[in-house]
Amino acid sequence: MTKQRRWIIVALALAALLAFCAFPATTSTDVFKTQLDRIGVSYQVPREGKAILVNIPAFELIAFDRGVPVLRSRIIVGTPWHRTPRLTTYVSAVRFRPTWRPTPSMIASGEYADRVWPPGRNNPLGLVAIRLQPGLLVYLHDTNHREKFDQEYRALSHGCVRVQQWDRLVAFVLGIDLAEVHRLANGRETFDVPAPPIPVTLGYFTRFPNAAGQIVDHPDIYRLGQA
Length: 227
Fold this sequence. Notes:
The chain is of the alpha+beta class. It contains 5 helices and 13 strands. A hairpin with a 5-residue loop joins β12 and β13.
């Protein structure tokens, strides 16, 4: 890695940390929290800083800043036989221009050949992967099949979460502008930028307010029988 690239990584990590820590508590979270309480959703929107919620049956990711939704993106989640897990975790790093190798089960199924995909737009992880806690092989990432976001039913992955607005999510996580995200994602190097530990919830809420504040009932895609 070049000296210039190391300085870029340090600067990005510092900017992300400052953005994560700079937000005081606010009462603006009350409006959204009231909606969730009214329909019995257990998710607690953090009153300070940033947070990310993946609502699996809604095929939606929501990014919160001081309790207020600031980004809502279509996503693709795991199929009923390769489920996206329900858990609470955190962001650990952002990998620009990732490489990718299929899991043994993917290879055994015949869906993918046993090889390493080079970085670029044809990589199954796309141009960026947001890594969660160390050891967790579930990422929030771009994709080489962006056309699938147009489908209504989007339980199509092997468990990872593909994010339509991946560039805006990376800008949110690192506290940088979209132009810088695009510049790094379309560069030549594969590298990681340490990210602040933004909490991430992979949740399963079949009743949830949409962007207009209306309560929407979503299909119980994993047949869990719960809201």
